[in-house]
Amino acid sequence: MASNATNGTTDANAAASRFDPNFTQHVIDLMAPETKPRHRQILTSLIRHMHDFCREVELTQSEWVLGVNYINALGQAYEKNRNETWRVMDILGIESLVDEINHSLVLEDGRAPTSSTILGPFWSPETPFRELGGSVVQNMPKDGELTFFHGVIKDVDTGKGIPGAVFDMWQASTNGKYDVFDPENQTRHNLRGKFRTDENGKFWFYCLKPTEYAIDTSGPSAELLKIMGRHPYRPAHIHMMVTHPDYIGVTAQLYPKDDPYLATDTVCAVKDDLLLDFKPVQNEPNGAVLDVEYNVRMAPKKYKPDSTMLMENANQNKF
Amino acid sequence: MASNATNGTTDANAAASRFDPNFTQHVIDLMAPETKPRHRQILTSLIRHMHDFCREVELTQSEWVLGVNYINALGQAYEKNRNETWRVMDILGIESLVDEINHSLVLEDGRAPTSSTILGPFWSPETPFRELGGSVVQNMPKDGELTFFHGVIKDVDTGKGIPGAVFDMWQASTNGKYDVFDPENQTRHNLRGKFRTDENGKFWFYCLKPTEYAIDTSGPSAELLKIMGRHPYRPAHIHMMVTHPDYIGVTAQLYPKDDPYLATDTVCAVKDDLLLDFKPVQNEPNGAVLDVEYNVRMAPKKYKPDSTMLMENANQNKF
């Protein structure tokens, strides 16, 4: 059994036979009849999976104590702008998976709106609208590469541009920091902007080519990365939150298609349709050295009438 | 899918089809080749079960954030003698399950040694040996019921008594407190004692009839109990740790067979062969009002040559 599990297969049923077959159901049945249905559903599944996990790997008592201590260490490390539990969830792919569960939408004939990916903690509700063709670069870093970013926001059913949609974007500077965490180098709202599409659904503006950065490695989440033999880097990315009253919103991150960390993103948030192709340009009128086009596909709200966006996440700063 | 899960069945495969079928394996495959085999085994199983759990209940983002905050609250509540993470594990049956995984031993023809159950945080390595027939009651509470406790420690194969085995016992006083947490009422080593069996494997001594008590309900673990509609009581119990150099040790808790909390123990640590029948007696020479017999079955070490007991748990006070 132990050797089976080592090579990645599981054999919970075989292992379970050595143990009391009624124990897990006993714990589940301790819930009172008045337990709320959703609480019962979540706790039933959680208890089953935690018990199956323990039996499958035949967890030792020392390992279990280590796990308890680790969970305590995560909570003890908590402070404003530092959420190690959140980061561990990201490292294990949980935030990205929960995002998919809540936003995955495949239409009947295989059409799909632009993929969603995690919001992250740096979205701001105060980002200003800017004119089409404006620049979000208020403070140009020495190593910054000015980029002309443009595209069309389209209806996934008709393929037509959506006028009046909002393309809200934010990105870190070349030092890996967002404006609010870098007051020495960046003025408020640097590298943030909201753009409203024109009558054809088009938008265009200037930003920086994004650059990769490492997540904070001073806490217990870094121990998990080390155990797994993983690096702490996120691929370079530009965040976007695209909205329109008649369409299901799309929150995602866009990555240069040649970024070295796409396949090994620390927070497992890369998807195939979120890649950008930065092309060198010369003699661009506003001095851009790169050009990138990205089109967004939005689904009408009829497909998910109760859809909402979890913007309150933005108040849970974690990195 | 959601309604299936509500009534206790699971349908992870059906739910999974809506989502990227490769994502979980992607996260697992982020582990580097040099990851230690046991780390790989544990994390592979943990990632699979956590992902299946999220998909099965279609966890919402708000619920996920609530979970992250709850884990943080557990760690933030940590202090000496207060381990809320440990207690949550107990409420979910995890400590008891891990104990079973590490100690379950069923011999070929159905014979079984006495069941193991969780050690708890109150065992002491300094408990003194006492004479057979002595009393562990150094401080008799007003509502205490003196009990004559006796039995035989037997070889599970031969049924014969094991001479020189050690029956180490400890119990709370009638106020629900152990000696070290109750210096006003109890002298050191009150209600603790080690007894060495005679040439026939017999032991006998005086103790109190144990009484039920509630676990601490001032922290986040009590929120979980409340959500599940569960009470905070442990059934009354006497702890025992039985050892002999040639036998696999047995650590367990013994419960009055008529205790009202047997079926709903907060920490899920009751087993059918750990029940005590307290019988009233009159004119007992040392004033006992109750008599209880309990025999222990031990398996020779040949069945598990590498068995050890996790006494270091005793340093992880949690209640």
Largest inter-chain interface? Answer: A-B, 84 and 85 residues
Strand content of chain A: 15-25%
Low-confidence stretches of chain A: 1-16, 311-319
CATH topology group of the largest domain in chain A: Protocatechuate 3,4-Dioxygenase, subunit A
What fraction, in percent, of the residue positions of chain A are helical? 25-40%
Q: What is the gyration radius of chain A calculated from CA atoms?
A: 23 Å
Return the domain count of chain A.
2
Assembly state = homodimer
Mean pLDDT of chain A: 90
- The CATH homologous superfamily of the largest domain in chain A is termed Aromatic compound dioxygenase
Number of strands of chain A: 12
The backbone outline of chain A, from C-alpha atoms, is globular
Main sheet: strands, sense, barrel of chain A: 5 strands, mixed
Can you characterise this structure?
The structure is a homodimer of 319-residue chains. Chain A has 319 residues and is an alpha/beta fold. The first copy, chain A, folds into 2 domains: 22-59; 84-303, Protocatechuate 3,4-Dioxygenase, subunit A (Sandwich). Chain A has 8 helices and 12 strands. The first copy, chain A, has helices at 2-6, 12-16, 23-29, 37-57, 61-76, 84-91, 94-103, 220-228, and strands spanning 146-155, 166-170, 192-196, 202-208, 213-214, 233-234, 238-244, 247-256, 275-276, 279-280, 290-293, 296-298. In chain A, the strands form 3 sheets. In chain A, strands 1, 4, 10, 11 and 12 form a 5-stranded mixed β-sheet that branches. In chain A, strands 3-2-7-8-9 form a 5-stranded mixed β-sheet, with no helix packed on it. In chain A, a hairpin with a 2-residue loop joins β7 (238-244) and β8. In chain A, α3 runs antiparallel to α4 and α6 packs parallel to α8. The longest helix of chain A is centred in the first third of the chain and has 21 residues, at 37-57. The interface between A and B is large, with 84 and 85 residues. Chains A, B: Its cofactor is Fe(3+).
